[in-house]
Protein 1
Amino acid sequence: MIKLVKNRGEVMHEQFLILGSSFIIAIIIVIVILHFVKKAEMKYYRNKVKNLEIQRNMVASTPVLVELSKIEPIIKNDKMEEKYNKWQDRFTDIKERRLTIIDDMLIDLDIYVEKRDYKNCGYRIASAEIEIYKVREAAEHLLDEIKDITLSEEKYRAIVTKLKTKYRTLNREFQEHRELYDFMQDAVELQLENIEKRFLDFEKVMESNEYNEVVQICKALDAMIDHMEIVINELPDVLLMANKVIPNRMNEVNQLHKEMTSEGYVLDYLNIDYNIEESKKNIEKIIDKVKILNLENSMFDLKTMLEYYDSLFVDFEKERLSRKVYEDSVGDFQKRLEKTNSLVKDVYNQLDDIKNMYDLDDGDVQIIDEVNRTLIMINDDYKKMKSKEENKSTPYSVLHEEIESLSDRLITMEEDFDSALKSLGNMYDDEVRAREQLQEIQGFLKICKDKMRHYKLPIVTDQYYVQLDEAREAIVEVEKELDKKPIVIKTLNTRVDTARDLVLKLYSTTMDMIKTAQLAERAIVYVNRYRNKYEEVDKALQDAEKAFYKGKYKEALDISIKSISVVDDNIYRKLVSIYEK
């Protein structure tokens, strides 16, 4: 027992040793990590400060002094000397004051980094970055201003060289085609001389290093040459259009306008006289602007005028074509209108008689009334149109459109009228057809009665007389419908169909009865030759004769055929053949 307790104490001691060791190791690891974190943080801020120092040195190394040294030999006037002195002062301020401030800020940053005062480091680094940025911008702006002078001779001479090339091309174009510029030759030449003078002015200011004037001269030369390029290229066309093309076109339009007016064309809507006068005024204004070499919108205005006069020829041709089409159309329309007037008048005048003759519905009557009203309006509009033509108050292009509109309206009206006439025509056709079919039905009825009288059957069945009475009654009903005023076509057609069906049924019954009776009679005669030879034939023949005289013709035929079939099995076919012959 004592030994066991001792062992437990040893185990607990060992566990405490392990825990203590682990705790010490953890503390060491944390210390090492903190050491590396602080080392990395210090490295980060030192790199930041180092980067700021590099940026500061780049600003300090801006080649302002080199460019200023280039200015000294070309100082030939007070303005240039004044600028040079100001640039010197600005560079001195940057180098001796503003860069010194940045140096102090960088020294303070080094101290704060060594003290590990990172909280203040962040703010001071941002302040230093802003100050370096401002100084760098000031130095670069100063350098650009100085370079504008040091590089201006090379830059502006290159610009002027291009302008001279462009000027020589324009001058050569003018000299080779002087005659195209008409009375504007002297003005163009004077402007070209002004450009040459500006080139001389450029050389003078370059010699005296007055670079402010150089800029203005280059801008003026560029504007003057651009303007002369427009003048050289467009002026001949402007003069040609203003002095020849458009005046000639106006004369052609005016002459054609007079000719067509004398031929009866109405062209007042084109306002040609007024527009010609306005065009002349506009051309005078354009010429006045051209005299001072102002071509702004001149070509556009002249092209617009030319397009207008070209469009007038299209209008003239349209009027000629419209007149031809109108004159061709109006004659055809008048004939068609007169024919339609006569037809509608006849139908409308007979409308009361038609109403009395046929049971018209409201729709049929309404269509005819509407057609008549529409036709009256078309006639009125046609008279108005003819009045315009006679008064010569309307262009043929408008008359052409009106006659086309009237034609379309007349066609639509004729279609409606044809629809109404078709309805009336169908009623009349139905009546005529009913009368024709009545005659046919009566003919069939007569045939049935004649057949019966001709064959003089011993007995006529009741079925025949029933069907005969039905057919007669149906014919009477048709006759009554035809005698009614007005006729109800629908009822009439029903009556005719019924009468036709009943008569055809009677005809079928009559022909079947006669055929069966004839076959039975012939069969009895044929069977009679075998009466003495066969006892059963004699008995069957007696039954057949009794049935025949009772009017049971089919029964008599069946008995006869069965009785003789033992002797001649083709008896029925022979009888039919004899009947057909």
Note: Residues 2-150 form one domain.
Protein 2
Amino acid sequence: MSTAEIRAAALTSKAWPYEEARKLLKRWPDGKPDGAPIIFETGYGPSGLPHIGTFNEVLRTTMVRHAYEELTGAPTRLIAFSDDMDGLRKVPDNIPNGAMLAEHMGRPLSKIPDPFGTHDSFAAHNNALLHHFLDQFGFDYDFASSTDYYAAGRFDDTLRKVLRHWDDILGVMLPTLGEERRLTYSPVLPISPTSGRVLQVPVTVVDADVGTIAFTDEDGTQITQSALGGLAKLQWKVDWAMRWVALGVDYEMSGKDLIDSTTQSGKICRILGARPPEGFNYEMFLDEKGEKISKSKGNGLSIDQWLTYGSEESLSFFAYREPRKAKSLHLGVIPRAVDEYYQFRGNYAAQAIEQKLGNPVHHIHGGKVPAATLPLTYGLLLNLASLPGVGDKATAWRFVQQYAPGTSPATDPELDKLIGLAVNYARDFVAPTLKRRAPTETERAALADLDAELAKLSPDTPADEIQNIVFEIGKRHNFDPLRTWFQTLYETLLGSSQGPRMGSFIALYGIDNSRKLIAEALAAA
């Protein structure tokens, strides 16, 4: 595909990254002045451990960024912003040394000791986890720390604008608050010079141009001090708008739960003399119980959990699909995500350009989709690795090499990784749940017939030929509907209510081994 062909097709593609990228094309029809880069931003609140929802925002934003680059060829930049100057409001449930953290309530996250004991602060620990994820996936980004930016004075000019437009900003925010909250609300949160806490107290602007404010400290002392240079921070909705202005942000997406906040921050952004960024509100991930995933609760999957059982690409695939639809995120979705990723990747090479641009793998790989295909599916590997005696990688490889001669861990590292992931998942979640049942008399006759037919075959009989035989036996024994025959095979041979394409499974496991499974089923009481 040439660059010109991609740009022409992307202009009309219905893939959501291109739809989002076209918003930026309307925002800057001729590009930003002086060739300045389009600024994308993602936000992270390091008050709890990062979770997949946090990282998917970076992934999805990166997909829009790449789509825009394909459309225009213009420069872009992604800022991963950590609000690590935010005050600690509650102790997360899923961290050690909670009592120690409780002693620092209200202090900036970057000024609180690390409960894990590995970094200079709690924020530094969680920021490092964010770095690890972004680097692991190869994201191109510039990390920004709220603490560093405030302290270095990088927000000072925009902070002065906030002070100058104090009443206008209050006019946006106060109607959204309850009566009691209005009495203490302030766009600026001063840092107490005595306790170091971020204070939620009424503030008076003394001199907007100089940047001074007045407030009452926790001990009742009247304080007049600068709001600049890290001595204060903004309420987060005002802070969000301020960042858009100060950093020149052109695009930022956010969760559906922040729709009202996006609206209010957009109004404040205009008050400060700038245009709010483009973006959209995605639906939230849910845990297995249908509850929203929370950093502080630690429910849902962690990055490490997913990557123990599924590939990085499968995680990206899961994030790409239907971002405006709420999806349950739990261990059970991993096998399907892995196999569907490979299915879409296998289709990519033969597709027309319009189909390629709508294929999730185009966006997962930034247009550089691997051409290699794998000889068998993750689901098939799960069924193999779940059988007694095949619960380790080396044993599984012996079966795979019989099924796909010429493959090896050294020459096929992607297949080697997939086998290891399937062995992990089968060991932890499939094998413990399997329970084979005894067949009925009708099923015994069909299984005996299948065994007799398999006995006639050579060890290298193709999977499709074996599948045809399985089909014919099901018809011969009047299974209606025919899927009940396959369910019989799954339940009596594999101990599961669902399973693989049986021709492929028998070819992989081997005809002799498959006949042993049938013999065990026929011997069952």
Note: The chain has 24 helices and twelve strands.
Protein 3
Amino acid sequence: MLGAIAISSCSDADNITEVNGESLLEEQSNFGKAVGNFTAEEWYSGGELGTTTKRSFSTPTTNVAADAAMQASFDKGITFFEKSYTLNEEPRKGLGPAWVRNSCIKCHPNYGHGNSVNHSSKYQAGVEGNGYLLVVYHPVEEFTSDGVRYTKENSGYIAEVTGMPQTQAMYPFKAPIDESQISIDWKTVDKMPSGLPMQFADGETYSLIYPDVNIPITAFNTNPLPTDYEVRLESTIGLYGTGLLDAITEEDMLAQWQQEAKFVDMNPGMWNKEQNTWAGDKSLDKTNGAWYRLADGTMKIKRFTYAMTRASLQDGAGANAIWNITNVTRSDRKYLYTTPAWAKAMSENEEVIDYISANGKETSSILHPYWADSKEGIAAKVNELLSMNTAAKGGDNYTKAFGQPEMSNKDYYDFMVWHRGLAVPAARDLDNPKVQQGKKVFNEIGCAQCHRPSWKTGEDKYWVDDAIKEYCKESGKDPNTCLPKFANQTIWPYTDMVQHRLFMINDIRTGWCRTTPLWGRGLSYRLTGSADRLHDCRARNEIEAIMWHGYSKDSQAYNATEKFFNLSKEDRDAVVKFLQSI
């Protein structure tokens, strides 16, 4: 019945990606020593606990590797990242009924930043390494800068599809968005609105491209259909080191925001300029301003994703993705990641109803929970089950209908040990005079003002969600220590954990983007086959990424970009070499 769906079934016995890359120590004779303008600490990008001396994005941190039980959980977590989920076959069943990808590694090639698949004009969600996710939203409060139209913050996602729109579905259901109708037009920048030439003084040129995405109304399988929408692309980011970023204290983040607020405008959705502190009210029982309400009501400051929409790694991009990318339920998320508009459209689709009527009667059928003895009854069940997208809307009833949840607490725990426990690759070539010159110039022209080199983590009092709390208690473990912890580590992520505006054409949805950590990114081409950078992979190399920062004179990084533009070729190359080494 489901033979037309090309989803491979895998067992845990399948080979997994080799987690140990080439050793840095074999060719870095000065590793761990103070050299030139680098301290001995700077080789250890993730601190003593969070650094790997392998050229790898998939290696465990030292504290995980030193604990046999955690290492076993880490190894099991790898399988949940790398292997495909299936519709109804063990050991990873539960995919669908609609999904974004059927495995995590599809979006994170070799655990790194997603790539653009050679800047193709097609969306191609099934292509390995394609990190693209769709962002479909209502543009509001528009304004212009340098003759280019921009959208202000708080541009809301459309309600007809999920925030991470799905382009795949289990037959006979139709995907919320028909992927075949999505087109990506890669446009070329003819000139910079800021006035910066596209040729350096020494004659070297650069070019800039950016995606213009179109999804026609005919591609939506929803009722109602969306109106007044725009589309952007966002690429997945690297997974390594996120446990370390989770250990930075809110107090230190606040101090950084307060320091930068003296010189640049801050996102008013996150920052109260008059009170010089976070926007919003922590006492409210809902997400507001900079505050994010976690599942148990705990309020924490947002820090994860490009737009800083999540506050804890256990309720962050990875923890969410293992649920919403695949639509695999678990004990604390027994409901679907769907929309009522999609459920209604599927309940009104004659092909869907006819197929369930003919093939869903047998109790062994995956479609049986949708089956009834009349087409009207089937339509009602389809609408009901696919609408169970929150606990309040009957999510528990959905899992009861399918005998789920589909991911056990133990499996989710293993996944999060793996997620928190991914080490950062150590810095490379710091004894190279060119890298040392690159660091000097990087600091002199002002890049380090946003790409803050180092942080000291706090006690790492991480938040614990119910699924992990329940598993750890049942296993006799302390929920506050059963996940990898990274207390009091000096780390070198090269981010200020602050949002800035670059005013690029076809910019990120809100215009505000967290400063992306630079650690390890110099290994991207070697480990993933792509050097694509920025939130939508528009930059094909470091030079393009830097020059996008100066597209508009309103960019908060324009002055630094202008200084970079005026460097000699020798110094530009040194900055690039530095970026490839940290």
Note: The chain has a mean pLDDT of 93.
